[in-house]
Amino acid sequence: MNNNRTNRQRIAALLLSLACILCTAGCTDKGPDSAISSAETSGKSSEASAAEESEESPDLDLSFPGEEEPFELPELSDEIPAEAVTKVTISETTGDETRIVRVEYNDEHDHPLLLMEPDSDNVLKAARNYRYKYNDNGDYTYEWELSESSLNETTTEYDSENRYTAMKCTKNGKLSWESRYEYDKYGNLLLNESTYYDDTTGEIMSVFTDDFSDCDYDSEGNLITAREHKSDGSLSKTYSYTYNSEGQRLTEKAVKEDFDPDDDYQTTERKYEYVPDNKLPSLEETVKYKKDGSIYSTVIIEREFDDSGRVTQATKTYKDSSTQNVIKQTYEYEAL
């Protein structure tokens, strides 16, 4: 009863306010800029005046704004999408144990539409649903990613060279992060600025800027040295690179110039090897060094490919001063 009475009181107050506004408007001089002379008004025909008077007044919207509708997370689906053309089964071997860790149903662009993973009872369940929109180059401009806890929607913009220029992501209907990118004349990334938001209040939580404008290149336009600076202008990291005759990166070295004594390592070195006509490296070795030059950790990834250039096996070896782990992943492809 109190709510009904309050609503009636609000409606009555609104109608009273409208009546006062109309009354005031009829008695107020509009000023010289908007004045209508008696000569202009006298030119109106009596028929037009009668037509105006007979027009019905528009209905007033007397409803009151309610609370924002809560976001409803869609349900995951384990139905195989009609657009799926390939099933990929990924098995993982650790020691003597082999198990399926992921099954993907991919579209014609080799992007997953349905991703399934085993639950605690080792039963495959839908873990992700995806949808995409593509441009004429086959790159997606929109990605819809649904998990049990969130729905992420990401839009991507490209320049005339088909490079990322901007990305924006919403999580459960709220802006989560956005990034912008700038490139040099060779196509190397000069700037990547990312802003992250509180998905409850919409306030900016943090801004990260990777500025690679202080760089050196070889005669082929390959990036050979990049110096990363902090917001105060001081040098943060120095990167150096080498390439093969095909322009593929062979080595990468990163040195922390603002090394903190609490850091575990100061220098990271990577080297790559390739098989002919394949952009993905067949070998990727990453070694991290402490400040005294001793090895902190080593990670080696070795890949094998089929005739189509798809990965059929990837072996990852991790080792540090006390442990060594080897994980082998096998990829099986089935046309749908």
Q: Quick recap of the structure?
A:
It contains 3 helices and 19 strands. The protein has 336 residues and is mainly beta.
In oligomeric terms, what are we looking at? single chain
Query: Taking Cα atoms only, what radius of gyration do you get, to the nearest Å?
Result: 32 Å
Give the distance, in angstroms, between the N- and C-terminal Cα atoms.
62 Å
Element pattern in H and E: HHHEEEEEEEEEEEEEEEEEEE
**Helical element count?**
3
Rounded mean pLDDT is 83
Kindly name the structural category. mainly beta
What is the beta-strand fraction? over 45%
Q: What would the principal axes of the Cα set say about the shape?
A: globular
Percent helix = 10-25%
The largest sheet is:
19 strands, antiparallel
Features:
disordered N terminus; single chain; 19-stranded antiparallel sheet; 19 strands
Describe this structure in words.
The protein is mainly beta. Among the domains are: 69-130, no CATH class; 259-336. Helices cover 12% and strands 48% of the residues. It contains three helices and 19 strands. The model is unreliable at 1-55 (pLDDT under 50).
Spell out the blueprint of helices and strands:
Elements: H1 2-27, H2 38-42, H3 46-54, E1 86-94, E2 97-106, E3 112-118, E4 124-134, E5 140-146, E6 151-158, E7 164-171, E8 174-183, E9 189-197, E10 204-211, E11 214-217, E12 223-229, E13 235-243, E14 249-256, E15 267-273, E16 283-289, E17 295-305, E18 311-320, E19 324-335
Antiparallel strand pairs: 1-2, 1-19, 2-3, 3-4, 4-5, 5-6, 6-7, 7-8, 8-9, 9-10, 11-12, 12-13, 13-14, 14-15, 15-16, 16-17, 17-18, 18-19
